[in-house]
Amino acid sequence: MKTKIFLNLAVKDLNKSIAFFTKLGFSFNEKFTNDKGTCLVIGENINVMLLVEEFYQTFTKKQICDTATTSEVLISISLESREKVDEMIEKVPNAGGSEYLEAKDYGWMYQRNFLDIDGHHWEVFYMDESQIPSM
User: Fold this and answer.
1) Residues 30-40 as b or e (16 or more Cβ within 10 Å = b)
2) Under DSSP, is residue 83 helix (H, G, I), strand (E, B) or coil?
3) Distance between CA atoms of 50 and 24, rounded to whole angstroms?
4) What average pLDDT does the structure give for the chain?
5) What is the CATH number of domain 1-59?
6) Which of 8, 13, 53, 130 could form an S-S bond across to 49 if both were Cys, CB 3.0 to 4.6 Å?
């Protein structure tokens, strides 16, 4: 079996989270979906488990962070083009999230950020690796 990544995020309302990410164009793995959580598919081997807070809390003794004041993780996803980055960010406000920070264009990399409905910080970017400057 290939190595897979399953990132886990606490969400307040699972159905609202599913609706939000569906509007951004993501899909879900139904094998890992019930009333306590769902598996958001990012790529072939990359997934994000969206778990209702009560269920998430069963996996840790730590307090769930308040995403309004604390950053627990920055989730970065590469997309195929600058246009795809802009397309996703344009969907965010209608889905219930908000654009976060200003867009950054480094020539070889273009990135934009958003906060989902639970305040989790996401970055979407396009990178042309052939244009990365020498260090």
Assistant:
1) eeebeeebbbb
2) helix
3) 15
4) 96
5) 3.10.180.10
6) 8
Structure tokens at 32: 């890992």
- 7 forms bridges with which residues in the sheet? 48
In the predicted structure, residue 34 carries a pLDDT above the cut 90: yes
Looking at the predicted structure, is the pLDDT value of residue 134 above 90?
no
Tell me the residue type at 6: F
CATH topology of domain 71-135: 2,3-Dihydroxybiphenyl 1,2-Dioxygenase; domain 1 (3.10.180)
pLDDT digits (tens, 9 = 90+) for 49-101: 999 999 999 999 999 999 999 998 999 999 999 999 999 999 999 999 999 99
Beta carbons within 8 Å of 58's beta carbon, 6+ residues apart: none
Residue ranges of the domains in the chain?
1-59, 71-135
Share of the chain above pLDDT 90, in %: 93
